[in-house]
Amino acid sequence: MKAIYMETQGAPEVLKFGEQPDPVAGPGMVVCDVHTASVNAADWKVRAGGYEGGPIETFPYILGRDFSGVVSAVGEGADLAVGDEVFGVLDVGQEGAYAEKVAVKSSILARKPAGLSHVDAAAIALTGLTAKISIEDTIKLQPGETILIQGGAGGVASMAIQIAKHIGAKVITTASPSNHAYLLGLGADEVIDYNSVDFTTVLSDIDAVFETAGEDVAMRSFAVLRPGGRAAFIASGPQAPTPPRDDVDSLRPAVGRDRPHLQRVLDLLAAGAIKVPEVTVYPLSEAVAAHRVSEARHLKGKLVFQVR
Predict the structure, then answer these.
(1) 145: which of 207, 238, 287, 288 fits an S-S bond (Cβ 3.0–4.6 Å)?
(2) Structural domain spans, the chain
């Protein structure tokens, strides 16, 4: 199969496009012909060697955590059939979606609705799962509360804005001016230009923060919370940061992989509560260019590889 792989960690140029061995479906697993795979911040962090897993021990290594495709082989005990159109996120600790084929546990995949394209399915897989678990299950956002979503134009944050509005919360987000109209269109009540405004000087008494930007934004976010407020972090490493005050909660969402959570994302989509973020499509062979864009952290929506 064709795949994007690397033989060492480092800059985007370590990504190579070439042949790798086809995967095999073990017990309870299926092999899927990958049609699309999405690009996530975790991908370039792993590639660069700075993510939670640290150095990779076995090469060549294929990145990629979520995809959409068609089942082409079935292992013993798997609950899907050859020809099923599916999408989902690989199991915790597993990667390999930057390829024409991937082997994955069948029970964590969801069937792709016929009216949802492979591109859009890949775009909502990990983003939808992360946003849903962060907003509903971790922060436990309630109607009438106010939430600050940092870095609103990114894929996960774009989904989180919509889920928060569906719950009935007031949503404030941060973004550069070029993305303000996009985020207001997703339902944000207020957008702050992080280039010209220090959000800590204009916000206070916030019920919850969802932090997707990382760096110093994470620690500064605690300042705007009300006493008893809570903040969830997905861009600050494997552990939630220690808050500089003792009257707020610092949370790290546990983004498990399972079919019911993916189905919940599909239900929100079908109900019109959320829509697919803006998507930019790259051929799989242009992974280096896609990683450069993702690593610059100023993209809007999602980057998706067209594999087939």
Answers:
(1) 207
(2) 2-112+278-306, 126-251
